[in-house]
From TrEMBL:
Membrane topology: Multi-pass membrane protein
Organism: Thauera linaloolentis (strain DSM 12138 / JCM 21573 / CCUG 41526 / CIP 105981 / IAM 15112 / NBRC 102519 / 47Lol)
Source taxonomy: Bacteria, Pseudomonadati, Pseudomonadota, Betaproteobacteria, Rhodocyclales
Keyword Cell membrane part of the UniProt annotation: yes
InterPro entries: MMPL_dom, Mycobact_MmpL, SSD
Protein name (record): RND efflux transporter
Length: 835
């Protein structure tokens, strides 16, 4: 694949620039290299402008962008979001007394101060906050004179033993043990619903700032760690421990972890530079390759800010990939120029020769990369769509920085003469079968039938085994807590504490019972809601359920002096209506003010994929059997309901995304190679890698979810780069009349080392992620490292094996095409002054 029909003879060694025709090559090449100064100046100006823009980029996240907006569950939730405040984006702050129980004046004073601090934080939906100190948390009692009730902590509370005994009694009356009070009475919970925008400023909620406020104004100010004594100021009347969970805190911790993630970017840059330098032993070319890749990152981040996007914990990984891809393409260009200069060609002519040979191959490879990102737009989750846009922008700028700017800069600097001489000596040694030449000769054997059959049989066995293992691949989380973070992270430790100490977990699945106005007063509706709650309680993984019906039973019994005979649903709606109106007046979140939305809330033991699948199946089956136009059972709200909808979208998108990626990559290969046989040769190794990557996910216990979904698509889009570079040279050699073995040997000699270099460089750029504090980044790093290295091996081994059967004769290689690798040098070293 190339930009013209030039052959080897059209690119002779030219030592004197006066012997070179500046009007040779196609129009685009002439436009670039005959105006080199202006190209460099334009890129410098753009870099300066976008650097200024990039410094203002915002790192944040959005709860709404995590939702699959068009899924029926989410549409049901968003339609009734204002009536389901406690079932959306909610923080849960648990205040623990590590040295006693909650019936301690010092503890309750600390709880009051923490409650006030949370109340005043921006973005808090204050009217729906719940804690022992909020007036909406009330107790109710039946007496001889009727109902009595009041706040759990009365206005007369003064910290005395008598008032403390009253608080203890009120907690028991309110029935909040296991929900707002720990089962062991050593902690209590503050439930803090959040708004998507700050009311005072109408600005989106800044999760990073909110997380820092929680740490500074709550945890650091009020918590005294058990292992710290005199170094930290104790609370006025005692000590407490703080446990914080919820989407906002999870995202905040991810954003905080990005500071450490930035260190990995620096490590990746250093490792990439070291690998390239060890290959070239040329400082100037190494610096230029790394510099152009960094310029691409600057352009990408600047354009993201200009277009109004923000970086989030998912898209923040895109600059790493853009840098790694840039280095890989830059290494190809640098390698081609070095080989030509080593033969004595002038540095400007060498840059133009390499541009002719590899620009379209590189362009097609980058387009394949872009397709791998762009296909993520098909996933109906805004945060993934933003990642697709961000990554597509990054790959797009690589066309300018690494396919155009880098060859232009190298046309000025060339490579050092010692590096060129070393490259020439290495090439001569390789032709004699020494050094890497022995590896290339071994790879040549895969063009022979016996070796080709062995390689293909081995690939078939791996594919079959990988496919069987990949059948166990699951959608969603496979572990409790937040799999995005390490198991020993503070967030997951806090989540484990809350799950262990509270009867009601933070994993909430809600089914909305929707009726006409005042429909919840109907006996039939109450019976069906009660049946739904019973059905959900039978599902393994459901701890308990809560609904208006439960409160209604207790309230009706209360109106009849607490008689247990009346602790049931009553057909007489005149009786139940009194209780419903009384419950509405208490500010409940179990029914809306019009009595038309009544959530049935199931508290789950976890949000693992299996648990959510069972609950969704039971709820959908019940809704299908019992739903009517006047009484609808709408899924789903709550954190687990949203997670279930996300899993469904991810499951549907997983295969669909791969189909689109492979269709697009196949089409690009057909356009590039103009041969269906060559396209099959390029695509088959990618299919094997996709199968093995899914098998690896099963082995490592990684589920397919929002954080990991992009990896397989990226592996296909980026993996095809190897085939594009290798086959572009191999096909050109075959079309020039060479045998398959000769053509492949020439392709390996020209691009083989760099294909291996690229694979190692790409893997080195992401393998450091395995030590990231953010677990989903570590998972992505392991998967990408495997895919980059396996794609490299697949290209070097399976391409010649498949070519033996599909491209064995020159006639099968297709139409004549582009320039091949440069011929071996006639002399022993490059001419002086050409570097």
């Amino acid at each position: 694949m190339a930009m013209g029909n030039n052959h080897i003879d059209d690119m002779p060694v030219i030592r004197d620039l006066r012997q070179f025709d500046p009007h040779s090559g196609n129009r685009f090449e002439r436009l670039i290299f005959n105006h080199r100064f202006w190209v460099v100046l334009l890129c410098a100006v753009v870099t300066g402008l976008l650097l200024a823009q990039g410094t203002r980029v915002v790192i944040n996240a959005s709860f709404e962008k995590m939702l699959p907006q068009n899924h029926p569950y989410i549409q049901n939730y968003l339609e009734h979001e204002k009536e389901l405040r406690g079932l959306g984006n909610t923080l849960r702050v648990v205040v623990e007394n590590p040295h006693g129980d909650i019936f301690d004046p010092g503890y309750l004073q600390a709880l009051a101060e923490i409650n006030d601090a949370l109340f005043l934080m921006p973005g808090v939906d204050r009217s729906w906050m719940k804690s022992l100190w909020t007036p909406v948390v009330r107790w109710t009692e039946v007496t001889e004179e009727g109902f009595e009730g009041g706040p759990v902590i009365p206005d007369t509370y003064d910290g005395s033993p008598e008032s403390m005994a009253q608080v203890r009694l009120n907690i028991a009356r309110a029935g909040i043990v296991g929900s707002l009070v720990g089962n062991d009475y050593r902690s209590s919970m503050i439930v803090v619903p959040l708004l998507s925008r700050i009311e005072e400023t109408n600005q989106p909620l800044d999760y990073g700032a909110l997380s820092r406020m929680l740490e500074d104004k709550v945890r650091l100010q009020y918590e005294v760690a058990q292992h710290v004594e005199e170094q930290v100021r104790p609370l006025q009347s005692g000590t407490v421990k703080i446990h914080i969970i919820g989407f906002a805190k999870l995202v905040g911790d991810l954003i905080d972890g990005l500071v450490k993630v930035m260190m990995f970017f620096a490590v990746a840059a250093v490792v990439a530079a070291l690998i390239i330098y060890l290959y070239t032993r040329c400082v100037r070319s190494t610096v230029l390759v790394v510099l152009c890749s960094l310029i691409a990152v600057v352009w990408e981040v600047g354009l993201v800010n200009m277009l109004g996007f923000a970086l989030d914990p998912f898209s923040i990984l895109v600059p790493f990939l853009v840098f790694a891809i840039g280095v890989s393409h830059g290494a190809q260009k640098m390698n081609g120029i070095m080989q030509d200069i080593a033969r004595g060609t002038h540095k400007l002519v060498a840059a133009r020769y390499t541009f002719r040979r590899l620009f379209v191959a590189g362009l097609t490879a980058l387009l394949a990369d872009a397709v791998g990102f762009a296909v993520l737009m098909l996933i109906d989750i805004p945060v993934i769509q933003d990642l697709a846009v961000t990554a597509s922008i990054g790959v797009g700028v690589l066309i300018f920085t690494n396919l155009i700017l880098l060859p232009v800069l190298l046309s000025y600097t060339g490579v050092s003469q010692p590096a060129a001489q070393r490259a020439l000596a290495d090439e001569a040694a390789e032709r004699r079968g020494r050094g890497l030449g022995a590896v290339w000769q071994w790879l040549d054997r895969f063009t022979e039938r016996r070796w080709a059959v062995s390689a293909l049989l081995g690939a078939a066995v791996l594919a079959a085994g990988g496919f069987m293992v990949a059948l166990e691949l699951q959608i969603g989380d496979l572990d409790a807590g937040a799999p995005e973070l390490r198991p020993d992270s503070r967030y997951n430790l806090d989540n484990a504490y809350v799950t262990a100490k509270y009867g009601l977990s933070s994993d909430v699945f809600a089914v909305m019972v929707k009726t006409p106005k005042d429909g919840c007063e109907r006996f039939a509706t109450q019976v069906e809601a009660d049946r739904l709650a019973w059905t959900l309680r039978q599902v393994p993984g459901v701890q308990t359920t809560v609904s208006l019906v439960d409160s209604l039973r207790h309230h009706v019994a209360g109106t009849f002096e607490g008689s247990p005979k009346w602790n049931a649903l009553v057909r007489n709606e005149k009786i139940t209506n009194v209780s419903i109106h009384s419950i509405l007046g208490s500010g409940t979140d179990l029914v809306n003010s019009e009595c038309s939305i009544m959530p049935v809330i199931a508290y789950l033991s976890d949000h693992k994929a299996d648990t959510l699948t069972r609950v969704v199946a039971a709820a959908e089956a019940f809704a299908a059997e019992h739903g009517t136009p006047e009484r609808q059972f709408l899924l789903a709200a709550g954190s687990a309901g949203i997670e279930a909808a996300t899993n469904i979208v991810v499951r549907e998108a997983n295969r669909e995304m791969l189909v689109y990626v492979y269709c697009a990559v196949t089409l690009l290969c057909l356009v590039a190679f103009r041969s269906w046989r060559a396209t099959v040769v390029a695509v088959v190794p990618l299919v094997l890698t996709s199968i093995l990557a899914e098998a690896l996910m099963v082995v490592l216990g990684i589920g397919v979810k929002v954080a990991t979904l992009p990896v397989i698509a990226l592996g296909v889009g980026i993996g095809v780069d190897y085939a594009l570079y290798l086959l572009s040279v191999q096909l050109a050699n075959q079309r020039a009349g060479q045998s398959l073995t000769q053509a492949y040997r020439g392709a390996v000699a020209f691009t083989g080392k760099v294909v291996a270099l690229v694979g190692i460089t790409l893997a080195a750029g992401v393998v450091t992620w395995a030590w990231s504090p953010i677990k989903f980044q570590a998972d992505m790093g392991i998967l990408l490292t495997f895919m980059f290295l396996w794609n490299m091996l697949g290209a070097l081994i399976l391409i010649p094996a498949l070519s033996h059967f599909l491209l064995g004769r020159p006639a099968l290689a297709g139409a004549p095409a582009a320039p091949t690798a440069p011929p071996p040098a006639a002399g022993g070293s490059p001419a002086r002054g050409t570097t």
